[in-house]
Amino acid sequence: MSLRILIFGDGENELGKIETEYAPSDDLPALPRLIHRVLGEPAQTTYTTKKFKKIKAAHGRGGKWAKKTKRAIEDARKGGYQGTVILIDRDRKSSAERLGPLTDARDAMLACCAVGNAVETFDAWMIADGKAVREATGKATQSQSHPKPEKLNKDEGTGNHPKDWATRIFGGTSSLTPAYAVVALHADIDLLKRTCPKGFAPFAKDIEKRIAPLVGS
């Protein structure tokens, strides 16, 4: 029996076609691909993506982020998914403000759910590995990456934001979805953990802890 994982994220660049169930043999979008690789590339696994911001907050106690997390987990359970992954951009907020409520809500529901926040956005992970970037751009002799992408913390449009760097590297916003898929396929996972220690490293660790035990069970 295949393991079905429901993934919530912020945008199409990392999620691909929303509410589409992807198999490992498909051209996986960036976020499902990274999750698949962290899990060890299990063959009997499918990934469906949804936008976290589209989730309506559940009723009950807690703030917006906690209520949305509860509803996301409820939706996954009702849909027959064994695992849930939620990744949001920190977007210059504090991890306590963004990630804390997700973690608390997940723990309260005893859910098989991994959570994380990209610092400052998912785009930072896509510009960390120069070799993977070259695979996506086809520019074999030009290294275009950022050694510390989590340091790019200015407003979008200033040139010092992860999306600004990604747009320059990959030739415009319209090309980010396919480019990110290629980067995620070729990126060195250990390098991402080292260069994105606040965002990717703990996210990958949570996947290994919360979702990996479901593989083959």
Largest sheet, spatial ordering of strands: 2-3-1-4-5
How many E-type strands? 5
Order of helices and strands: EHEHEHEHEHHHHHH
- The number of domains: 1
Question: What does this molecule look like?
Answer:
- With 217 residues, the chain is α/β, with parallel strands linked by helices.
- The chain has one domain.
- 42% of the residues lie in helices and 13% in strands.
- It contains 10 helices and 5 strands.
- The protein has helices at 12-15, 30-38, 64-78, 95-108, 123-126, 130-137, 162-170, 176-186, 189-195, 200-210; strands at 3-9, 21-22, 45-51, 83-89, 113-118.
- The protein has a 5-stranded mixed β-sheet with strand order 2-3-1-4-5, sandwiched between helices.
- Helix 4 links the parallel strand 4 and strand 5.
- It is globular, with a radius of gyration of 16 Å.
- 46% of the residues are buried.
- The model has no long low-confidence stretch (mean pLDDT 93).
List keywords for this structure.
alpha/beta; globular; 42% helix; 10 helices; 217 residues
Task: Explain the layout of strands and helices.
Elements: E1 3-9, H1 12-15, E2 21-22, H2 30-38, E3 45-51, H3 64-78, E4 83-89, H4 95-108, E5 113-118, H5 123-126, H6 130-137, H7 162-170, H8 176-186, H9 189-195, H10 200-210
Parallel strand pairs: 1-3, 1-4, 4-5
Antiparallel strand pairs: 2-3
Helix pairs in contact: 2-8, 3-4, 6-8
Summarize the structure.
By secondary structure, the protein is α/β, with parallel strands linked by helices. It has helices spanning 12-15, 30-38, 64-78, 95-108, 123-126, 130-137, 162-170, 176-186, 189-195, 200-210, and strands at 3-9, 21-22, 45-51, 83-89, 113-118.
